[in-house]
Amino acid sequence: QQQVKQSPQSLIVQKGGISIINCAYENTAFDYFPWYQQFPGKGPALLIAIRPDVSEKKEGRFTISFNKSAKQFSLHIMDSQPGDSATYFCAARPPDRQGGKLIFGQGTELSVKP
Amino acid sequence: KAGVTQTPRYLIKTRGQQVTLSCSPISGHRSVSWYQQTPGQGLQFLFEYFSETQRNKGNFPGRFSGRQFSNSRSEMNVSTLELGDSALYLCASSLGTGNTGELFFGEGSRLTVL
Asked: How many Cβ pairs closer than 8 A exist between chain A and B?
């Protein structure tokens, strides 16, 4: 119940295309769903996040779509660029609103070809 | 504003030894969380400290321990090292109160156990 399942494991997209990464969870008590971006040799950095009372959130080229009934959420990267090549992690937070504990998906290695 | 600083960045130990890793959070942040990152298991939560008290704990054996000092700096210790402890250990800081949820990660300490 504490797992977050992420797919695909790796993704290759042409420059200008749309990258889509999906995540599914079981625990309906999760109250916060962030996406992190990690470049080689660096720590993960927050990209965008959503709460379960919102169905979509957009920030620039990045959009989270959230389906509460299906217990799924996804990251869409529009107009993908080579600089977006990185590993992306979805995550979910258990209902300790002040806690630093996140349950992470396994990660998706995105490669954007020029 | 300086980011999260982790030391050392790289270290090599042998089985049976112990290791101490250090983390300096962002100024004003009172919460420090530790994560283990491996290719097989992904990002896994170790524990979180807030105001010098352990607030959350993951599912790791007692060989993994931590502490936080009054200036919010944190250390984690792994005793009786095993080959499987080879990983990138990431520290994340956050305000620790309110509901922002954002974690700021350091670049990690890469531990190799031989």
From this structure: 69
Q: What is the pLDDT of residues A57-89, one digit of tens each?
A: 999 999 999 999 999 999 999 999 999 999 999
> Pick from A43, A102, A106: which is nearest to B107 by CB?
A43
Strand (E) or helix (H) holding B45 = strand B42-50
pLDDT tens digits for A88-98?
999 999 876 55
A40 close contact with B: CB closer than 8 A: no
Q: How far apart are CA A65 and CA B70, in angstroms?
A: 41
DSSP designation for A4: E
Inter-chain residue contact B92 with A100, CB threshold 8 Å? yes
Question: Burial code of A72-108, b = ≥16 C-beta within 10 A, e = fewer?
Answer: ebbbbbeebeeebbbbbbbbbbbeeebbbbbbbbbbb
Q: What is the distance between the alpha carbons of residues B17 and B58, in angstroms, rounded to a whole number?
A: 22
A38 neighbors A44 (Cβ within 8 angstroms)? yes
Residue from A6, A53, A98, A104 whose CB has the most chain B CBs within 10 Å, to mutate:
A98
